[in-house]
Amino acid sequence: MGAQTVGFRRVGHVGILGCATTAIARYTCDFQEELVTYVIAQPCVDLKDRACVDECPVDCIYEGKRMLYIHPDECVDCGACEPVCPVEAIFYEDDTPEQWKDYYTANVDFFSDLGSPGGAAKMGVIEKDHPLIEALPPQPHDE
Ligand code: SF4
Ligand code: SF4
To answer: How high is the pLDDT of residue 142?
Structure first.
């Protein structure tokens, strides 16, 4: 199940899902938990110019109401999206600025009820945002 996979890797439900039943399984899960991905942070909110979407080779950048979100399992960590963002909203997970660390969770949790759709284009605008983004006041942008 895609939704379980997201929680499994990113939220640490390893033991709950039974992954610790064998040494081999535990090793596999520990390995997966160390995988990192790219994260979209606050500068994207209320801008959504979609420049990153055009660069993504696997169509894993999904559009919410106020910002875009990178699917942590579908992203292949190629880095193509990061340099094209005009407001530097995209970060390698480990490089996300401290004030935006929660956006990692926001990107992951956005997919908790969507699972792994396997492509953003067919989804269009998904009529929701993570609560962290919903709570923000309107974000000003020059362009
Ligand atoms: S790092 Fe690559 S695969 Fe991941 S969201 Fe960016 S362009 Fe897509
Ligand atoms: S390029 Fe940057 S601002 Fe534009 S949609 Fe992507 S993350 Fe948001």
So the answer is: 84
